[in-house]
Amino acid sequence: MNSEIKLRKAEIEDRDIIWNILQQAIERRRQDGSTQWQQGYPNLDTVESDIAKNFGYVMTVDGEIAVYTALIMNDEPAYSTIEGEWLSNGEFVVVHRVAVDEKFAGQGMVKKLFDHIEVFTRSNGIQSVKVDTNFDNIAMLKILEAKGYSYCGEVFLAGGMRKAFEKIII
Q: What range(s) does the N-acetyltransferase domain occupy (predicted)?
């Protein structure tokens, strides 16, 4: 049976569910030995800010929130300085704070999320998707490679150097 998967803006009523999903992801990163998300970020204030600024998005499976992410249009100050080179200088969507509810872990949800982000990007006439991740986030690095993202260099973000990727959508 096929599940109905949708990407929608997060609403303030989703806050507690989103925060729970992020806490699960923070703990998974810690258990994996990663330094990513281990210094008090992201936190509940981050979620509330994302929602207030219309950056927060959830991917639902049959109406249940499975994945959280922040999608930011054309605005990531850290991306203006890259050790390397972006593929493009046009409009872009930034993907931050990808977290999967453990109930949906191992089901390819992040790949599905990126499919939805690419449709969203294309439907808004935006040229590319840019994303960064920690050097030790092996799962995300594999997903970005599988989804055809190009490694562009390194950016300084959240107190450390991060691997930066871009994919031209249109």
A: 5-166
| pTM (2 d.p.) | 0.93
Asked whether 60 and 8 are in contact (CB, 8 A), the reply is: yes
Q: b/e per residue, 111-146, with b = 16+ CB within 10 A? A: ebbbebbbebbeeeebbbbbbbbbeebebbbebbee
Structural domains present in the chain: 5-168 (3.40.630.30)
Local confidence band at 54 (pLDDT 50, 70, 90 cut-offs): very high
Token output for 47: 């979620």
What are 36's two structure tokens? 């990513």
Give, in order, the Cα–Cα distances in Å from 18 to each of 50, 55, 117, 143, 154.
11, 13, 18, 22, 28
